[in-house]
Amino acid sequence: MASMSTAFAKTTPFLSQPLTKSHKSDSITTSISFPSNSKSRSLRSSRVRAGLIEPDGGKLVELVVPEPRRREKKHEAADFPRVKLTAIDLQWMHVLSEGWASPLRGFMRESEFLQTLHFNLLRLDDGSVVNMSVPIVLAIDDEQKALIGESKRVALVDSDDNPIAILSDIEIYKHPKEERIARTWGTTAPGLPHVEEAITNAGNWLIGGDLEVLEPVKYNDGLDRF
């Protein structure tokens, strides 16, 4: 950031002072002067502030297990019932793991799912609300539900059956497919995008809980470093 500030200060004639970063926040403040349209060529100054937008809920929720604890967590996951993720499930897990769906801490439990489906929002413990218009859920079928039984933790596995996450304090509830489709798309007409792949042919149950991702999600597509 220091090199960017230096370069910007050297190449921008309207800066009245170099960019400086506040020690109290991640924002950058500078005074920038723009030529006025008046004949006197007087300068008018504006104060510019740049920074990251605050996450919904006020805190970025990152769910990737710290590296020193990953071996321990992988060992734990080996003993849990397993739920295999589809490619779409993996993408949603990626969204959750890096905090893009803050304040969610995992796949939605029933109360979160219904709030999202009916009101396009989530009410937090402090009474505040955040926008959430798309349900982020994980579907399982009857066989998987039976295998989970009374367990309160499951291992989420990839296509090669490798554990990649743990879902804890789980809640299993009915998957209201037709209502989900109708409230998301406003119709149940055939041919809707995403529906056949992610909803109609998905399991009859949804499982929610607190997510711990055992490794950063990688796709091996040449873009993982970004």
From TrEMBL:
<dbReference type="GO" id="GO:0004020">
    <property type="term" value="F:adenylylsulfate kinase activity"/>
</dbReference>
<feature type="domain" description="ATP-sulfurylase PUA-like">
    <location>
        <begin position="53"/>
        <end position="215"/>
    </location>
</feature>
<dbReference type="InterPro" id="IPR015947">
    <property type="entry name" value="PUA-like_sf"/>
</dbReference>
<dbReference type="InterPro" id="IPR025980">
    <property type="entry name" value="ATP-Sase_PUA-like_dom"/>
</dbReference>
<dbReference type="GO" id="GO:0000103">
    <property type="term" value="P:sulfate assimilation"/>
</dbReference>
<keyword id="KW-0547">Nucleotide-binding</keyword>
<dbReference type="GO" id="GO:0005524">
    <property type="term" value="F:ATP binding"/>
</dbReference>
<keyword id="KW-0067">ATP-binding</keyword>
<feature type="region of interest" description="Disordered">
    <location>
        <begin position="18"/>
        <end position="46"/>
    </location>
</feature>
<comment type="pathway">
    <text>Sulfur metabolism.</text>
</comment>
<protein>
    <submittedName>
        <fullName>ATP-sulfurylase 3, chloroplastic</fullName>
    </submittedName>
</protein>
<keyword id="KW-0808">Transferase</keyword>
<dbReference type="Pfam" id="PF14306">
    <property type="entry name" value="PUA_2"/>
</dbReference>
